[in-house]
Amino acid sequence: MTSTPTVQTSGPNKAPNILLVMVDQLAAPALPAYGHRQVLAPHLDALARQAVVFDSAYCNFPICAPSRFSMLSGRLPHAIEAYDNASEFPAATPTMAHYLRHAGYRTILCGKMHFIGPDQLHGYEERLTTDIYPADFAWTPDWTKGPGHRPTGVSMRPVVESGPCIRSMQIDYDDEVEYRAVQRLHDLARAPEQQPFFMTVSFTHPHPPFVAPQRHWDLYPHEAIEPPRVGEIAYADLDEHSRWLYVAHAQNLYTVTPEHVRNARHAYFAMISYVDEKIGSVLRTLKETGLADDTVVVFAGDHGEMLGERGMWFKQCFFEWSARVPLMVSMPRRFQPARVAAHVSLVDLLPTFLDLASEARRVEAVDALDGLQLRGRVRRLAHGAPRASQVHLHPWPAAPAVRSAGRPRRARQPGRPTRMG
Ligand SMILES: [Ca+2]
Q1: Position with higher pLDDT, 192 vs 229
Q2: What pTM did the predictor assign?
Q3: Ligand 1 center to residue 313 CA distance, Å?
Q4: Which residues, listed in sequence order, are joined to residue 295 by a DSSP beta bridge?
Q5: Catalytic residue numbers, as ranges
Q6: What percent of the chain has pLDDT above 70?
Q7: Band of residue 13 on the pLDDT scale cut at 50, 70, 90
Q8: How far is the CA of 187 from the centre of ligand 1 (A)?
């Protein structure tokens, strides 16, 4: 048996490896690194202590597939017509994986990406797992049928049935993601290559259902689970979009009690602790193999989870718990740990990665990108010059989207008040 050697892969004109670690539906305010007092996530705490932590990072569309397509393409959702979880992501749309591959990277996807359509690679040369979500068009909504039309079957059931579990499909999935990612990192270390790697490790936790292993559930005293900061708001007092979601999430068909809320929040916190262990395992492997010294680690989420705030659940709105995501960039040899207050969003990742890749080979984007590279800001963190963002909103039901644009923050939505929270 060949043991894993410690490798030194840096050299002249070699760009750094990029390890993008993703979670699904992890609201930034739920992480202790962003100030949560109750959640236990020691590995993400450790990462945050040595990372550039972005305190005002947002997804560009608070639902899975459009958020991820936007991040991967570096373009706003409306530019690529990604409006829901049944919008096809065309194979012809250039992604960060295409660009990085062109720049000389080995591109590897391990875990979830929720690609819709026949292309399940989108520039990644290797995919180490299947996806966990359907790749077809079964979840196509018909907006003319109103919010009660729910092709995904979303409802309050995950909230009222929340609690500890023996095993879930999500645990099956993320255990495999962890195993494959750790194995691939050992393989990369055993056979070091001249080319850098771009590896995406994408977990599905802490996405609902709100169930967690007993061991992680038991990390938290149930009676101490705090209620949402902002309690339920009467339907009559809700804004128009929140009313739509109230029906779209079938809240009119279920009674959610305070104990249901406590159970769901308890499980969500436990799921964060569960996935934190997985992330710790991947990062420990990166370090043990010697790859960490030459690897930029980026930790990001695709969108948040309302978790009962305002009486709302899941996402699909621009309130803070739904739209704000964790974003950390770590490579202590290059970047001094810091907190960044500037507004950024996930479309900034692609230009950031192209900037890192340019140390070996400059690659020009085919399309006009909607983001800005983050590294310039990381380098001058001490000066802390915050950049404002533009919030670009479109009339319902077309897609709201957030973008960074280097101009003062403002909200625009023709004929309607802003829905930002
Ligand atoms: Ca998602």
Answers
A1: 229
A2: 0.88
A3: 13
A4: 17
A5: 64, 114
A6: 86
A7: low
A8: 29
